[in-house]
Write a structure and sequence with these properties.
GO terms for molecular function: methyltransferase activity. The N and C termini lie far apart (44 Å). A seven-stranded mixed beta sheet has the order 3-2-1-4-5-7-6. α1 packs across α2 (16-41). It is α/β, with parallel strands linked by helices. The protein is built from seven helices and seven strands. α3 links the parallel β1 and β2 (70-75).
Length: 200
């Protein structure tokens, strides 16, 4: 049976003591993503596309940092979107659909947090191919690879090599700048060599 991202799932992983710890961690990640993106944009962050957003847990910490932010969340969970779609601006979209799905304008920042290691490789490749048209600034993509000390939900987890993901990101022109942050091509011209991660 396919993994269900239903109320029971979110109750288990996002409520109570576990939820409080996760919210604090998400707030720290949001601060890193906003600060890094703004460093390269040279202006305040205006728009975010949160891919695989679940119940929209990134929305509150992002809006706390930038109250006028335009936030849109996408997720394949019918439960999460039916419950929070209207109040948190979430839409029912599966990752692979990003290959062809487009919106009115590209965003400053894509957030894709704790998502890719639960997806089949074919869906990852299809969905990632749309990133360069969906955003023009930066992508924050945090995930666990084989050999990482991954905590939390291991059901449906694909333990892939870091090289697999590095190749997928390079194929669409993403440039790593550290701490799960990747610049899209439009903002790569002025990047210094030592700002880039993975240089030998």
């Amino acid at each position: 049976m396919a993994k269900q991202y239903d109320r029971d799932y979110y109750d288990r992983w996002y409520r109570g003591a576990v939820g409080a710890e996760r919210r604090a961690h998400t707030a720290r990640k949001a601060a890193v993503a906003v600060a890094t993106c703004e460093y390269y944009l040279g202006r305040p962050l205006r728009s975010v596309l949160d891919i695989g957003c679940g119940e929209g847990h990134w929305r509150a910490p992002l809006l706390k940092l930038r109250p006028k932010l335009d936030y849109l969340g996408l997720d394949g969970s019918e439960y999460a979107v039916s419950r929070y779609g209207r109040s948190r601006n979430l839409r029912l979209v599966r990752f692979g659909q990003l290959e062809s799905l487009r919106f009115d304008r590209s965003v400053d920042l894509i957030v894709c947090s704790d998502v890719l290691h639960y997806l089949p490789a074919t869906e990852i490749k299809r969905g990632l191919s749309g990133f360069p048209e969906l955003a023009h600034g930066m992508a924050f993509i945090d995930l666990f690879c084989r050999g990482d000390d991954a905590e939390g939900d291991h059901e449906g987890f694909f333990a892939r090599s870091a090289l697999f993901y590095a190749r997928q990101f390079a194929a669409i022109g993403l440039r790593p700048v550290g701490t799960h942050c990747y610049l899209l091509p439009a903002y790569q011209q002025s990047i210094a060599r030592l700002e880039q991660s993975g240089l030998g």
